[in-house]
Amino acid sequence: MIIIACLSVIAVRYGEPELVMLGAVLCGACLGFLIFNLHPAKIFMGDTGSLLLGGAIVVMALRLKIPLILLVCAIIPVLETVSVILQVIYFKKTGNRIFKMTPLHHHYELSGWKEGKIVSVFSIVTLVFCIIALFLV
Q1: I need a labelling partner for 12 at 20 to 30 A (CA). Which of 22, 110, 120, 135 fits?
Q2: Closest of 68, 64, 78, 71 to residue 9, by C-alpha
Q3: pLDDT tens-digit profile of 87-134?
Q4: What's the pLDDT tens digit per position in 4-43?
Q5: What are phi and psi of 32, to 5 degrees?
């Protein structure tokens, strides 16, 4: 939701009302999901929902002609993906692991971090990098 909100602000700057509306609708849907699904989770979004949100983020960035900004504002999903790629390559070459488990958030879980702490830290990091992205555009 933070990344979509960031891209919506960029869409406002670029004068793209359709993307602003798409971002607002998606942010509202995410807020509704979060409000009715506070800890402990009762419903899991799963791949269908998360892939929809990821696809919407990519569509917004492509329509705004700022796909490289995703490397900044979507730093957490990028790191999660890179952690899996590195783990697989390293394990195939050496038989050892870099992380306890991938994606990266599972590594932190196995390191003793609570789920709430992981979500909070990842959200704050995403917010900080989205603010940086806003200054870059």
Answers
A1: 120
A2: 64
A3: 999 999 999 999 999 999 999 999 999 999 999 999 999 999 999 999
A4: 999 999 999 999 999 999 999 999 999 999 888 887 888 8
A5: -60, -45
